[in-house]
Amino acid sequence: MTPEPKPAPVLELTDVAVRYRGAAADVVQDVSLAVEPGQSLALVGESGAGKTTLLRILLGLARPTAGTVRFDGEPLAPRDRRQMRRFRRGVQCVFQDPYSSLDPSRRVAAIVAEPLRSLGIDSRTSAAPKVAAALERVGLPADTASRYPHEFSGGQRQRIAIARAIVCDPRVLLADEPVSALDVTTRVKVVDLLAELKEERDLTLVMVSHDLSVVASLCERTAVLERGRLVEQGDTAQVLGEPAHPYTRRLIDSVPRLPV
Amino acid sequence: MSPRDTSFHTSGDTLLDVRGLTVRTDDGRVLVDDLSFTVASGERLGLIGESGSGKSLTTLALLGLLPDGMTATGSVELAGTQVVGAPEKRLTAVRGRDAAVVFQEPLTALDPLMRMGRQIAEPLARRTGLRGRELNSAVTEALVRVRLSEPDRIARAFPHEISGGQRQRVALAMALACDPGLLIADEPTTALDVSVQAEMLDLLDTLVREREMAVLFVSHDLAVVAKVTDRVLVLKDGRAVEEGPVLDVVTAPRAEYTRALVAGARKLESALDLRSPR
């Protein structure tokens, strides 16, 4: 880690718009945002707001119909193999559903080693100690590696997915609703784990979530999307504490709270 | 197990009386273990639990809807009818009339090939005997009651043509169509966006109070349950661990498990209190 005076955004979207083929309107319009190192960003909004579409763009899985995506200041070019290798090494992801995001026919060791092997960093044997370390870091027992995904609960599977994402030591972790499929008690623990990883690995999270309390626990910055448009973005404490836009206020007021 | 006391009508106001309800799989695993509780008419009970707690199986058992390979023992008396072991014919009479259910995913309750209007008309016609134009206006009225604007458009729509929140309102309208004494709601707002959820909870609460209907509200979310019920029962691994007035359980939980549940919810919630300096 070399500290730079003014770090460039790791990921940056400028005037991004997305329209699906045959659709009458853009699903995402005029979105500009930057992911600065150490400033975890939450994309917040309800279904159909375009959160997941934006995340797919940030992951390089979809291309915007207009606007630009930059990675470390360079335009992201999915055909540029060398850049993509750097990109995949620096940006990893965790998905919402821990049941469909792990290959059921492979042992956990092979699943977690996948980024190391596909990026050509390690062979099966040289990956093993890194896999073991990643599994240990996410709080799973050592014998996890030799078992299959179906043997684990939802929370444990999400830990496996996190181990896979951090095994190649990325700078950015993109997460699509990483804890919303989990029970409350499990959710708290996984949120804690993500917070620790952020701290100790200088990991920047980019998280899509509809759960404002999870966002507030993990992200320094928040961007609020409503029907494909960015209605508000800024420091999380500012956006959620003193929302400027009525839609943000409505979202916050809708969160059911326990009676005191 | 033969149901004996079927013609017995409860004279008190206990609408649902569950005693020693146990659900087992064919290979002998116990999924709901010796559960007992009652719901009086007009009372609102919350059933709280995380995944695998047996809360959904309990609601299915109450209506005799357990999937193949599972059997219920014990006693479930719904408006005087013994549900456990009752023949399907008797259960059909109970479902909808004495107790109706709204599930988490409205698409499971809605026929994808049938327009919304007809789906509501069916139970309405059965109960009221209305036909033709009168039935149509009763359908419109039912849709208005669940605060659907454009009821005529919704009535003509197929399930895939309307939003998730609208579907859940239609499912609620269907459940209310037969004016059941007990409304069972199994995670009815879990699949909805927060702002839609807030509206739906408010709607449910208003309708239930207006009609003095009893509610069994099943959810993993303590804060949601606290909004719409008076009393809660906390389930873990198929067993009841705590029961009491919702405010007591949420502010002073006694069981260790409930304490962990409340602490988890409060911890996440506290992150939202951003107005105070961090």
Note down, in words, how this protein is organized.
The complex is a heterodimer of chains A (260) and B (278). Chain A is of the alpha/beta class and 260 residues long. Chain A has helices at 51-58, 81-90, 108-118, 124-137, 154-166, 184-201, 212-218, 236-241, 246-254; strands at 11-18, 28-35, 41-44, 66-71, 74-75, 91-94, 172-176, 204-209, 221-226, 229-235. Chain A has a 6-stranded mixed beta sheet, with helices on both faces. A 4-stranded antiparallel beta sheet of chain A has the order 2-1-4-5. The model of chain A has no long low-confidence stretch (mean pLDDT 91). With 278 residues, chain B is an alpha/beta fold. Chain B has 2 domains: 1-98 and 183-192 and 213-270, P-loop containing nucleotide triphosphate hydrolases (Rossmann fold); 105-179, no CATH class. In chain B, the strands form 2 sheets. A 6-stranded mixed beta sheet of chain B has the order 6-7-8-3-9-10, sandwiched between helices. Chain B has a 4-stranded antiparallel beta sheet with strand order 2-1-4-5, with helices on one face. In chain B, strand 7, helix 7 and strand 8 (214-219) form a beta-alpha-beta unit. The longest helix of chain B is centred in the last third of the chain and has 18 residues, at 194-211. The N and C termini of chain B lie far apart (61 Å). The model of chain B is unreliable at 1-12 (pLDDT under 50). The A-B interface holds A 46-47, 154, 183-188, 191, 210-214, 216-217, 236-237, 240-242, 250-260 and B 50-51, 164, 193-198, 201, 220-224, 226-227, 246-247, 250-251, 260-262, 264-269, 271-272, 274-275, 278. Chain A: Residues 11-252 form the ABC transporter domain. Chain A: This is ABC transporter ATP-binding protein.
